[in-house]
Amino acid sequence: MKKLTLTTLTAMSLALPAVAEDTIKIGLGVPMTGDLAIYSEYLGARCMADMINAEGGAGGKKIEVLVQDSAGDTQAAISLAQKFLDEGVVMLGTTPFSDTMIPVAQIAQPYGVSIFQPQSTQVEMHAGIVDNFFTGVSPDPFTATAAANHALSEGVKNVVLLTSDEGGSWSARTPLWFGQVIEEGGGKVLAKMNFSFGTSDWSPQIADMKALGEEIDAVYISSIMPDIGVLVRQLRSAGIDAWVVGSDGFDDPSLDAVAADDPAILEKVFFATLAPSHNESAVVKFMADCKELGHDVPGLFPATGADTVKAVAWAVETSGSSDPAVIAETIRTAESIPVLTVDSISFKDTKTYAQRTIPVIGYKDGKRVLISNEIPENTPKDWN
């Protein structure tokens, strides 16, 4: 047998991966490039990990956020998840759409590892297909209800719903839940109209709205920028002064830029979103703190990754364990878990999605204002 020298032993030890007991690893195979890069949760996750590590880590253990680009491709996300599982991660993150999250959760299950997705609002993930999954936000029916409740408080009666199948239930069914709550509150859905992502000319839908022959109080759409900004401008140019209402897709800094030349253009725009994102919010402060640390966290969606890291760190400290199954069970059974985006979340009663407040954001003088931030009690019961 060959004798091992001190030099050989040292080289071997340096080649070994970090010991699990000393490092808490979170694996994020997420879109860093491509159309879905706006959901770059890894930016907030890395910043929060640095903040926690600077304070001594999670129960004295360093948090390491492993990140690789899936480019929004499902097969790439699955391959990256397997790679991270082989490296001993205790939690996974992936693209926030069910066609990717479900297979990733399935391959993670034998390892006792769960997914924590801080942005996914799709209802498909809560149908019982997988149970090793957490979303740090509430599903779309909750945001639809919060928006509808505010619309009703503004006297909205007649609404038009713009729907699309391109974004799954988020863009297809969220408007319908909004309409359901409006009708239950005494309002009326005048029409449902289709749209496609990437629309730059809304004149067909606007012509159909004018042809209704009734005054429209609000138009609801669950879509993304720049489409929303174009819609707002074209509605106003056509003389339609209805509220433009939406979901978390509105929560993009580029929407604020629409008001750069004319602050009044966003006065009748509001949306229910994932977390308070006005100037005085914890999210905005976090982004500023991250910038001082050398991290660019450009908006709410990237910032939500901080919730993943905070929840895992809290579970490690609370349980005293780095076992992924123990961490998941600690999160699932907790009465209250502190996170960045809201004061706290809980999965105790909901199992896979966070019970949390739903903020509604509007505009005054071109700046965001927090309109309300409550857990709606009149959410449609038939969504799951």
Automatic annotation (TrEMBL):
One of its GO terms (biological process) is amino acid transport. Residues 1-20 form the signal peptide. Keywords: Amino-acid transport, Signal, Transport. Residues 23-352 form the Leucine-binding protein domain. It holds the Pfam family Peripla_BP_6. InterPro entries: BCAA_transport (IPR051010), Leu-bd (IPR028081), Peripla_BP_I (IPR028082). Belongs to the leucine-binding protein family. PANTHER family: LEUCINE-SPECIFIC-BINDING PROTEIN, PERIPLASMIC BINDING PROTEIN OF ABC TRANSPORTER FOR NATURAL AMINO ACIDS. This is Amino acid/amide ABC transporter substrate-binding protein (HAAT family). The lineage of its organism: Bacteria, Pseudomonadati, Pseudomonadota, Alphaproteobacteria, Rhodobacterales.
